[in-house]
Design brief:
The protein has helices at 11-14, 63-75, 100-107, and strands spanning 22-26, 43-45, 53-59, 77-88, 112-119, 124-131. The chain is α/β, with parallel strands linked by helices and 136 residues long. A 6-stranded mixed sheet has the order 2-1-3-4-6-5, covered by helices on one side. Helix 2 packs across helix 3 (100-107). The chain is globular, with a radius of gyration of 14 Å.
């Protein structure tokens, strides 16, 4: 079973991926799917448009990319979808202008609210966003 971070919890469980879910991966690093021990019946897509999705994972190395893609990501979210915005950790030495604060600054004014943080792997951190209850 694949683990991430220090909790010993399987990554798919940390990300809220359940049996039968539709999952959208955008800009995921090569081999990312191999980190996931997916539950039965999960439908994984790297192309938007076949949603709505139950879980969306978006990997952003730049604020500009995140700002440009957020409206499309939001349009592909099911009402109870968890939208994970992932950015390179400072310790990873990957060049980036993304941080947890940037994610909040850009996403919260769009009707999203954050409710969970996750160490995705050695390189990536993630912040889970959901649609505000009153907007679902």
């Amino acid at each position: 079973m694949t683990m991430a971070g220090y909790s010993g919890t399987p990554l798919a469980k940390k990300l809220g991926i359940k049996p039968g879910f539709g999952v959208l991966l955008r800009h995921a690093p090569d081999g990312f799917e191999g980190l996931l021990d997916l539950p039965v019946g999960v439908k994984m897509s790297r192309r938007a448009g076949k949603g709505p999705y139950d879980v969306v994972l978006f990997f952003a190395k730049s604020r500009a990319l995140f700002e440009g893609e957020l409206p499309k990501l939001r349009a592909n979210m099911a009402p109870a979808c968890g939208l994970w915005i992932c950015w390179p950790k400072k310790a990873s030495k990957v060049p980036t202008d993304m941080t947890e604060d940037v994610v909040r600054e850009v996403a919260l004014p769009t009707g999203l609210v954050d409710n969970k943080v996750c160490a995705v792997d050695e390189t990536w951190s993630g912040l889970r966003l959901v649609i505000r209850k009153e907007l679902r």
